[in-house]
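FORM 7B: Structural annotation worksheet

SECTION A. Query
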Amino acid sequence: MDPAFVRHELPDDPDLLDTVRLIATLDLVISVDTLVAHLAGAMGCPVWLPCRFGGDWRWSAAFDLPVPAGGPVSGPSPIANGMRDGTLPVLRPASQWYPTLRLFRQASLLPPQQAWTQVMAELCCALRTWAAGQER
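SECTION B. Predicted structure
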C-alpha cells in the first residue's frame, strides 16, 4: 500500500459523530455525498464537491462567493482560501454556505459516458496542485 494513502474505516454501525471524527483526521475531503460535504464544511475543513449539471439548489452558482478583484485570494485566511495552511488559493466556485467548500460543476448536460470527464479532469488537476503544496 502507498504510505501516503491511508484507508480510514468507520465502525460497522456508524453515526454522525463517527463521521465527524473521521473528517477531523483528514487534510482534504472529496465527496459526492452532500451529508459529508455539509459536515466537513460546517467543521471548516477543506472539502471539494463534484456537482451534476442542474443539481441541488444549495450548490447553485447563485450561492458562489464572488471572485475578488484581482483574482483568487492568497494568504493565511481559511475563509479566503479554503485551506488550513493558507498556501494555496481556492479558485472559485466556492460556496457562501461553507467558504472552505470548492465546487466542481458539470458545465452542461451531457450523455452519461461524457458527463463527468471535464469535472474529473479539473478535480484531478486541482488535486495534483494541492498535493504538490502539501509536499513542501
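SECTION C. Observations
The longest helix spans residues 117-134. The helical segments are 16-24, 34-42, 78-81, 117-134.

SECTION D. Sign-off
Analyst initials: ____
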